[in-house]
Design goal:
Elements lengths: L13 H5 L15 E3 L23 E4 L5 E6 L7 E7 L13 H11 L8 H8 L8 E5 L4 E7 L4 H16 L5 H18 L2 H13 L14 H6 L2 H11 L5 E7 L3 H12 L24 E5 L6 E8 L8 H26 L4 E11 L3 E10 L4 H17 L4 H20 L6 H13 L7 H10 L6 H11 L4 E8 L6 H10 L29 E6 L5 E6 L4 E6 L7 E7 L17 H7 L7 H8 L7 E4 L4 E7 L4 H13 L6 H12 L8 H13 L11 H6 L2 H12 L4 E7 L3 H9 L15 H4 L11 E5 L6 E8 L7 H25 L7 E5 L9 E8 L4 H17 L4 H18 L3 H7 L8 H14 L3 H11 L6 E7 L6
Parallel strand pairs: 3-7, 8-12, 15-19, 20-24
Antiparallel strand pairs: 1-2, 2-3, 4-6, 4-7, 5-6, 9-11, 9-12, 10-11, 13-14, 14-15, 16-18, 16-19, 17-18, 21-23, 21-24, 22-23
Helix pairs in contact: 2-5, 4-9, 10-12, 10-15, 12-14, 17-20, 26-27, 26-28, 26-30, 26-31, 27-31
Amino acid sequence: MRFFPRRSAASLSLLALLLTGSPLAAQPASAPGTTQGATQAQTRPWLYENSDVPIDTAWRFGILPNGLRYAIRRNGVPPGQVSVRLRVDAGSLMEKPDELGYAHYMEHLSMRGSRHVPDGESKRIWQRLGVTFGSDSNAQTTPTGTTYALDLPQATPASLGESLKILSGMMSDPNIVDGAVNAERAVVLAEKRESDGPQMRISEGSRLHFFSGQPLADRAPIGTVAALTAATADKLQAFHDRWYRPENTVIAVSGDMDPAAVEQLLKDNFSGWKGVGPGGTVPDFGAPDAKQPVTRVIVEPGAPLGLTLAWLRPWKPHADTIVYNQDKLTDMLALQIVSRRLERAARAGGSFLQSSVEQQDVSRSADGTFMTIMPTGNNWEKALGDVRAIVEDAKAAAPSQAEIDREYAQMDTALAIQVENADTEPGSKQASDLVSAVDIRETTVSPQAAVDIFRAGKPAMTPQKILDSTRRLFTAGVFRALLVTGTPQAGLDARLAAAVAAPVKAATDVRLADKLVTMDDLPKFGAPGTVVSRTPTGLPGMESVTFSNGVKLTLFANDVETEKVRINVRFGHGQQAFSPTRAAPGWAGGYALVASGIGSLGQGELDELTNGRRMGMDFNIDDDAFELQALTRPADYKDQLRLFAAKLGFPGWDPAPIARVKTGALVAYDAMTRSPDAVLGRDLNWLLHDKDVRFRTPSREEISALTPQSFRAAWEPILASGPIEIQIFGQVKPDEAIQAVASTFGALPARANKPVPAANRAMRFPAHVDAPVVLRHDGDKDQAAAVMAWPTAGGFALQKEARQLEILTQIFNDRLFDKLRSTEGAAYSPSVQNNWPFSYESGGYILVTSQVRPDRIAYFYDVVKKTAEDLAKTPVSDDELQRAVAPMRQLLMRASTGNAFWMSQMEGATQDPRYVDAMKAMSEDLLSVTPAQLQALAAKYLIPQKSWSAVALPQGVSAR
């Protein structure tokens, strides 16, 4: 659970703005017990009061006599699921000074159950209904509210009714008694301990600085140890009675069920909820205070050097009019122009590695413009000056019409895509979006209405209006600056104050040229290849196509996802192309390979080429192939294929991305020692593979030694390697898709499928250790992490066991959760994973990890070993088995309704048909397991004499 999320308006998540609307004034209550809909001309639904935006008629709105507001809509994505989001206006900003952390504490107590459901039983009931704890059922507390989320698969009126009864009891009558309060205190304290660390301290310092003088400054939802320790059942009950009230609650339901039936279930289960005693009055959240310090320096050892600038304005509720929305969009467009100029400057090299700007409405406390800067080296003053110069230029003169058109096209395309994909938008997203809109007093509109509002505002988005927006966003309000550094230096505060106060001259060379780049500028291919075979494969409708140059295509043309086409290009041999003993710059490929361009076109030109289109280029290294991936659409997929084929056939080798990726890796290097999780992230994968260098984090020396020449020498033969396997899944016409591949990848020269050396195909697991391997971190003395793993196997010969291990590890995980978290509070986030590589014949493992206090490590290992021993000694009960199988069954059913799932299962199938057989057997392998089979698997693999373990301890602290 996140405690202080920033709502991103211009991380340029423009959909968050349009699809959830904008702030609106406090809503007067409608007539009690009414159902509101768009057909009632005299009354706008409660969400749309004080607004003239089009009502999204898919929602059925209503208010119960007790004041609870609700919104319901029908949605069949995924089929059978009903998503419920229940939001209470009870966040950390509503807490009194001696109640810090109570809103989050209350969330935990509510999730345990109510007086009508035994402690912890709600989780088990939902598991039996196919709900996966943590993903399908969860909750989140923010400064302004608490939201409870439930995604109920294969919902029926009976299962939804039972679930709403549980939720109603959790809200109206949670089990606030001494036993539950004391048990959950250990859990929330464990959560606080595990979340503490460099990032949390930086977050807290940032909040204290930017919102100094406002309640938000010291209202982190996690609270304080003192307040949490002093909490009693009576105190928590008092907090609950003030804020957990029907008039403070909104429920959004989107799912595959008749809205009228859902409405009746809501009335049946929530109409009887009555508030106890007087309700709380929402306090004044204040406004940015100009009297507070302008600058602050945070010294956090190991933290990368960085700056954040903020222009803070008071947050005010606004009537949610069309014009207001269009003005917000103009602001967004203005900031996107500045962000693109900043990115262009960063790519060219110079004083800063990265900088971006966004507008955020933060916890109904501030409307801010936030700018981040990551210097390239230690000269942060130079980086700050260069970024300020770019901003000053944006304030000095209006952008060109070409710059406006560029950003307009990008925003318009993003909104149009939402219209195209509206019929595949999950109900979970719709329900979450609605309660998020309520959180900051917004509305929602349909995707089509969002596009219409945006396009209607285009004539007003003139250069002058963009200039006016830019000036206001970078001048109005209270200014604050924050410097984060890992190294203390004398006089930093004074230097920062002087740097932000120094006059700055507008930059003169940062505006983007109005250069037109089209697909015709890509390198040209030769004659199209020919099809030598075309046969059915996998599922009905899937085809396997082979071209004359050896390129193979798996094609699944379907209309499952409207206006979506998924493309995955697999080439070469992935991780197996690298030696297990000689280091290679695989770590640099993710960014530098993509950013190094195509032919004579650099990343800037490729941005122009793809602007206003749904095209991309994600790179990934799989066990047995390198991958280029994109989610595109019918209008763009043919050019997406051209882009991918040109990348393989005519790669560019711009040296600038090499310098940038090296700098980024070095900047982040020290942070890898600052917490137990960071140390495990750096070393665990390497250790679990018996120190195979392919899984090792590169050293500083390796990073520094990388040159453009050595990068090219490593990657050029890989980009030229075979075999090539292409997957196209989505809304395409089969013959056209085959021709598109023939004219791009089919036109490339034939590539040899170079055999992989036997040593590269070997995957090892470390030898047993009697005592855990000790790793050290430089962070907090009360933080540690513990690991235990057992070797399994790999490949296809034991694929049924591989799948059944998923069920075993789910049960293992559930037992550790109940013991280590719910009962003891010894660890907040124990995790059990099954890793079985089908691309290797060995190297699989079962892995248990958790953060834990150093003085509880022995206890952690005792619980893990006893749980493993019991799984091998005693068959699981039928109920425990079904609580693991039912969520897995529902997970498979939901995943299998989309193309992404089948695409992942068919990866590699053109080279190894066993993937097809494994895909067809997956459901039976996973779901037909018995208690006796699980016991046999535990006895076979959870062998104490084969286990390996490690601990990440603070410097100078021993495990106990």
